[in-house]
Amino acid sequence: MLTSIRGLTAVSIAACAALSSVPAVAQDDESGSSVEVSANVALTSEYRFRGVDLSGGELAVQGGVDVAHESGFYIGTWASSLDETTVGFGSTELDIYGGWGGDVAEGVAIDVGVIQYIYPDAGPGDFDYTEFYGSVGFTFGPAEATLGAAYAPKQDSLLGFDNTYVYADLGIGVPDTPISVTGHVGYTDGFLTFTNDGKAFDWSIGAEASIPDTPLTLGVAYTGAEGDIPVGAYDFVDDAFVFTLSASF
Question: Signal peptide position in this chain (predicted)?
């Protein structure tokens, strides 16, 4: 059984968008605190989450809005088109999340929160579910590394099962260029895979470049997943190059 959760290569990528995007609006309230509102849009050759293809190998349109307070608390929403024939959860995924992120020491940041995955036009049945996430990020020179985990407890939409996901991300900026290279590896154990035994590894390696004097970023990644895939099933985890054009405001 495959149930979609988005990605960040790992969950906190989307949730951290409120912290990393360019702020569109900054407002001061009477107490002097600051609120930042940011938005992001993307066109990607496939919607891949944790190595799994959720758009049937077709283009996907994605976007979201985040609101972050200077205290570190944030809320946000993000959506992507799906292939309703292949995936079976309708044509849209909508994520709503909230949490806290911030520096706890020089070069060390944490992010914790909860995310609700919603499939507003899915057919009969219970598909929406909740996941909790947390990560620790480290910055050293032009490099950033993240270790994280996400846990979906037992709930009706998971047929009474749970799911655990752990991952590591690495990004390195190329000095004096707008280019960075990225790597990711993750492991799923539980209900949220498309494998016979409920276990799967996923990985990606890629690069992205910001386009000068624009809010645009162009990225490419080679990604996939490994697991005990049912014979004759659609190969959701076949290795593929994924191209993405995104913008943050």
Answer: 1-26
105: in domain: yes
Whether 1 is covered by a domain: the verdict is no
> Which pLDDT tens digit goes with each residue over 166-194?
999 999 999 999 999 999 999 999 888 77
Q: Is residue 19 scored above 90 in pLDDT?
A: no
In a domain, 4, yes or no: no
CA distance 136 to 103: 10
> Once rounded to an integer, what is the mean pLDDT over residues 75-93?
89
> How many domains does the chain fold into?
1
Indicate the pTM of the whole model: 0.85
User: Residue 2 falls within a domain, yes or no?
Assistant: no
Q: What is the SS3 assignment for the chain? A: CCCCCCCCCCHHHHHCHHHHCCCCEEEECCCCCEEEEEEEEEEECCCEECCEECCCCCCEEEEEEEEEECCCEEEEEEEEECCHHHHCCCCEEEEEEEEEEEEEECCEEEEEEEEEEECCCCCCCCCCEEEEEEEEEEEECCEEEEEEEEEECCCHHHCCCCEEEEEEEEEEECCCCCEEEEEEEEEEEECCCCCCCCEEEEEEEEEEEECCCCCEEEEEEEEEEEECCCCCCCCCCCCEEEEEEEEEC
* Region 24-53 average pLDDT: 78
**What is the extent of the structural domain holding 177?**
11-248
Q: Report how far apart the first and last C-alpha atoms of the chain are (Å, whole number).
A: 36
Query: Percent of the chain, pLDDT > 70?
Result: 84
Q: What is the CATH number of the domain that holds 55?
A: 2.40.160.40
Q: Give the pairing of strands 216-227 and 199-210.
A: antiparallel
